[in-house]
Specification:
By secondary structure, the chain is of the alpha+beta class. The protein has helices spanning about 5-10, 55-70, 140-155; strands at about 35, 50, 75-80, 85-95, 100-105, 115-125, 130, 135, 155-160. The radius of gyration is 16 Å and the shape is globular.
């Protein structure tokens, strides 16, 4: 009764899970997802490190303003401050077939002199199936491209990759 086709037509499951982390990319239903909490290797993304002088609130503001300036149709749908001072932001953005969802979770620094850690997920808002094969159509890596472009505009590093950049 509950097929991937029925679930694909539903709205994207957004927000934080019961552990306070971003939800997993649903690779069985929607292959067009790229995030730091993914079970599928091709969907896994590295966490970003923000400059150490920025607070979690400032990081969230900078991500929001950069997204609104650089991503087509970017609009804030939800902003939330968590009990530990972390920030969650959800944006709707123009996608290939419909409105896509970008979620960001900015964690307060783990230690003095460290920057905030930024987890994220970019997911296609509508899954299209290719008939007659009944396989989900891929968006050509648009989710990964979107998040890499945003990180480059911010000028932030990938966590533990500072020597490579």
């Amino acid at each position: 009764a509950d097929s991937p086709f029925q679930r694909a037509g539903a709205q994207v499951d957004v927000g934080l899970d019961s552990r306070g982390t971003l939800k997993v990319c649903p690779s069985a239903i929607n292959p067009n997802c790229y995030g730091t909490n993914a079970r599928s290797p091709e969907q896994v993304a590295p966490i970003w490190t923000a400059p150490e002088e920025l607070s979690a609130a400032q990081c969230a503001d900078r991500i929001t303003s950069t997204a609104q300036a650089s991503l087509a149709g970017a609009e804030v749908e939800e902003r939330q401050e968590l009990s530990d001072g972390s920030r969650y932001v959800r944006l709707g953005v123009d996608g290939k077939w419909a409105r896509d969802v970008v979620e960001v979770l900015v964690r307060v620094p783990e230690a003095d002199g460290a920057g905030c850690l930024v987890a994220y997920r970019s997911i296609n808002g509508l899954v299209k199936y290719q008939y007659p094969l009944q396989t989900a159509r891929r968006d050509g890596g648009a989710q990964k491209e979107r998040m890499e472009s945003l990180r480059q505009r911010l000028g932030w590093r990938l966590r533990n990759y500072s020597d490579a950049e």
